[in-house]
Amino acid sequence: MSGAALGIEIVVVFFLALFLLQRYGDFKKQQRMVLFGTLLAWYLCFLIVFILPLDVSTGSQVITKVWSEITSHKTLILHVCELIFCPFFQNTQSVCYKPWSYIPDGIMPVFWRVVYWTSQCLTWLLLPFMQSYARSGGFSITGKIKTALIENAIYYGTYLLIFGSLLIYVAVHFQWHLSWYELQTIGITAANTWGLFLLVLLLGYGLVEIPRSYWEVSRQGHLLIKTYFKAAKLMTEKADSEENLEDVMEEVRKINESIKYNHPLRKNVDTILRKCPVEYQEKMGRNIDDCEDFDDKQNTHPTERSLSKLHKQVIYAVQRHNRTRVQWQILLEQAFHLEDVAKNETSTSRQFVHSFAPPEPVGWFRRYIYTPSVEWYWECLLKQWFYRVLSVVLSLFSMAVVWSECTFFSTRPVLSLFAVFIQLAERDYNYLYIEMACFITIFFLCTCVYSTVFRIRVFNYYYLASHHQTDAYSLQFSGMLFCRLTPPLCLNFLGLIHMDSAISHQAKEQTAYTSIMGSMRVLSFIANGFYIYYPMLIVILCIATYFSLGARCLNLLGFQQFMGDNEMTSDLIDEGKELLQRERRKRQRIEDGENRRREWRERYAQSDEIAARNRMSMSEMKETNYGETLNSNTDRQAKYTRSSSQTGRDSIELLQDAEPLDFNDETLNDDPLQSEPGRHTGGRYLSMSSSRSRIFDDV
């Protein structure tokens, strides 16, 4: 079992990162370099979060030392167990067991060193360059690299300036000797300081917003009104994206007509056309005239730089248009579902009825387990209470985090709640409890921080959209944020549970993670000042988030936010409601049309089948009558002795269809029997013939 827990978590975390990337990214359309860089960044950050509880469970690494002592000196096993591991079994039999998550000595330091420095190289060097490379509008690899280097020159220069300032500060203190270890610690401190500054902002927002979001989900009416508000805003953005796409396509059309097939930049125009939607490609393909040659005397042709700029605009416009279109469809489904819930709450049958049929066939889960009755009880009764209880639990957890962030520097007495829990578990050497408590705590902290990263939106510059609608720039930017926020988040967590001696000032052996981070005492004003007192600002941020001060400020600046007591919000809610009613009527007409066509197809299929059966039966009856007629004529010919010609005429007349009594077609000349003399040429029956003298001629 040695190292098995580490291996299992490494595999599980990889699939977790892959699942999230599949949800937000697009494996089919986006570049492999973008997907690999984002996946690696997310994977390393999640790995730090999941593996850190295993490192904490080893505590001061006494487990490793003691078990190495046990394996080399088997005679001291009982004594070690009595003195170190099992002091609470003084009056009973001493039991010493190996922890299930025991990791051999020397693995964790190497593991943390590889994971940390790889993530730092990604976030400070590779991802910014890859971000500019992916967003560049260049048509060649060389052009994209050149653009990326120019964009990142200021970016890297700022970091070098900050690092140089810290280096000068350390150099002026002659009591310090600038060794490689101290330079490494200065770099780590600078990165963690930047990350902690942003971490407190995101954490203060998430600690309040996550419990409140679950509480709002339990209020179906409030959630429906907020969905109307989102629909109005999203429709405005959708119309804006369509207009922007039309403008960009118009520029592409002009350039496509001006640059002919033999122009040197024609291949760049073809590259731009391949990025356009299919309907625009067809329109531009019909209007182009490839027979006209390129005239070098004209000076109205664009340059390669302008084409690169247009290429970048096309990529952005198409991505934004597709994203708003998909988000509009998703929002419609959510709004229709909430309206269905509001209608079904008063249902006496307790069967959940949907307004529209599901687009996909019903699977076995909805057929046998999640039946309409079960769905009604969950959507109309149990769901709201479940989310209310969950919101209360998360609120209590948030208050514990805020209290611990303000008091974790106090070691005597211990005021941090999480430090109290871990120390109680250490007394009993309950390693499983230590790991579970650490995992739940750090998982909650990461959820508050990472969910804020997924929710925030910086105009259209950074936005993580689900259902494969996130662009390459936002994916890599999120990877950069994760790599910069995770190390200070873990150090803050170790400070909450008093496992970081630089903050708690306790003479304890450090975890393998803190040994890799280095001693923060090299920069005392950061270790004793910024790392301790800056997290207290989380109280102010939580209060500001609770009263929605940020949303109110954005609303005053012209960015419409959901404010219940605002006239503009009411107007947007009414507009969104009208939009959804219009979409509901449109979808209802489409569904009614489909139902009518289906009914007509089924009805005509039955009628065609019946008609085919009738035709078959009629043909069989005609064949039977024809055979019987022939037999009767043969018998009549054998019984009576008529002339051969007259008998033939009578047989043919018997085979003809019966005509009405008033039938008189004097122009009928198709009968070959009419050429004989004495035969009436009219279209009458024999009983209606005008010649009465020849009735008994054959007797």
Automatic annotation (TrEMBL):
One of its GO terms (biological process) is adrenergic receptor signaling pathway. Residues 626-650, 663-699 are annotated as: Disordered. Keywords: Coiled coil, Membrane, Transmembrane, Transmembrane helix. InterPro entries: FHA_dom (IPR000253), GPCR-associated_LMBR1 (IPR051584), LMBR1-like_membr_prot (IPR006876). It is a multi-pass membrane protein. Residues 626-649 have a biased composition (Polar residues). The chain crosses the membrane at residues 6-21, 33-52, 114-133, 153-174, 186-208, 385-403, 432-453, 530-549. Residues 282-353 form the FHA domain. It comes from the Eukaryota. One of its GO terms (cellular component) is membrane. It holds the Pfam family LMBR1. It is found in: Membrane. Residues 231-258 form a coiled coil. The keyword Membrane applies. PANTHER family: G-PROTEIN COUPLED RECEPTOR-ASSOCIATED PROTEIN LMBRD2. Belongs to the LIMR family. This is LMBR1 domain containing 2b.
